[in-house]
Amino acid sequence: MTQPLSNQPLSTEPAPAKAVVVAIDGPAASGKGTLSQRIAEAFGFAHLDTGVLYRAVGVSVLRAGGDPADNAAAARAAYELHPEHPILQEVALRTDAAAQAASKVAAVPEVRAALLDFQRRFAAHPPGGAPGAVLDGRDIGTVVCPDAQAKLFITASVEVRAERRLKELQRRGIPAISSDVLEDMKARDARDSQRAVAPLRPAVDAFVLDTSALDADQVFSMAVAHIGSKTGLKPKA
Ligand SMILES: Nc1ncnc2c1ncn2[C@@H]1O[C@H](COP(=O)(O)OP(=O)(O)OP(=O)(O)O)[C@@H](O)[C@H]1O
Ligand SMILES: Nc1ccn([C@@H]2O[C@H](COP(=O)(O)O)[C@@H](O)[C@H]2O)c(=O)n1
């Protein structure tokens, strides 16, 4: 399937029961990806890390020698992305350069429009016949899936998040300077929350969870309780 993300054909399979959608938003390194994976596994849902899509667009522009802040170059890369594109599996997407490029292309309205339909289809028809989907990003509860049954906004102070990211980079053997990680995170926060289109912010009906003083297990327990209260579902044993 090489159709762009913006133009995937409709499935011919019979419509499944309405999928449960869990929207998990929050700033960088707040722990939303860690939480989303655990929630998806616990409930048997499919998981989409939507940041990967923006990272892929940003890296594609850089590789083509372009500027991620150039609207036309960013839009072109977004329209060329398709679900089987090998770039989506590359570890190069996990670098800080990819994150910074992602947050620049993410401010381009045409990029967001090109990626929107794929995300919505994933939520409505989770792959593998899963009964639900967990999507994590910045605008899932506000724009992509405003009707999600459960919405969480995972946050933490920028200092705590920078520390978490620094430790993660050290674990992965990637050299990093604490003050640089903090400054990069502040710059990304500013771009993500101040852009005109789909800025980072909690949906009005989101459960906002400050994880600054919570470990990943505590966050998971609170999220499970919230999802249970909204959907009546319990995690698989
Ligand atoms: N509650 C927590 N307490 C301490 N560390 C955490 C917690 N949750 C996640 N982490 C760690 O913080 C780092 C960032 O977590 P994660 O990648 O899940 O964040 P994210 O919000 O998805 O980040 P990004 O948006 O940049 O992809 C990881 O190393 C993860 O193991
Ligand atoms: N729904 C989303 C998801 C991501 N972005 C932008 O991509 C950048 C990278 O995202 P990560 O979750 O992988 O850190 C992020 O800083 C955003 O600019 C987005 O706009 N909307």
SSE layout:
Blueprint: E1 20-25, H1 32-43, E2 46-49, H2 51-63, H3 71-80, H4 96-105, H5 109-124, E3 132-137, H6 140-144, E4 150-155, H7 158-171, H8 178-194, E5 207-210, H9 216-231
Parallel strand pairs: 1-3, 1-4, 2-3, 4-5
Bound molecules: adenosine-5'-triphosphate and ligand L45E5XJ5.
Radius of gyration: 17 Å
Which spans of ≥5 residues are poorly predicted at pLDDT below 50? none
What is the spatial order of strands in the main beta sheet?
2-3-1-4-5
CATH-derived topology:
Rossmann fold
Tell me, briefly, the overall form. globular
- N-to-C CA distance: 36 Å
Helix content: 40-55%
What is the name of the CATH superfamily? P-loop containing nucleotide triphosphate hydrolases
InterPro entries: Cytidylate_kin (IPR003136), Cytidylate_kinase_dom (IPR011994), P-loop_NTPase (IPR027417)
Domain Cytidylate kinase: 22-226
Keywords: ATP-binding, Cytoplasm, Kinase, Nucleotide-binding, Transferase
GO molecular function: ATP binding; CMP kinase activity; dCMP kinase activity
Overview of this protein structure:
- The protein is α/β, with parallel strands linked by helices.
- It has one domain: P-loop containing nucleotide triphosphate hydrolases (Rossmann fold, 3-Layer(aba) Sandwich), CATH 3.40.50.300.
- The chain is 48% helix and 11% strand.
- It has a five-stranded parallel β-sheet with strand order 2-3-1-4-5, with helices on both faces.
- α2 packs across α4 and α3 runs parallel beside α5.
- The longest helix is centred in the C-terminal third of the chain and has 17 residues.
- The N and C termini lie far apart (36 Å).
- The mean pLDDT is 94.
- Adenosine-5'-triphosphate binds next to α1, α7 and α9.
- It comes from Azospirillum ramasamyi.
- InterPro entries: Cytidylate_kin, Cytidylate_kinase_dom, P-loop_NTPase.
- Keywords: ATP-binding, Cytoplasm, Kinase, Nucleotide-binding, Transferase.
- It holds the Pfam family Cytidylate_kin.
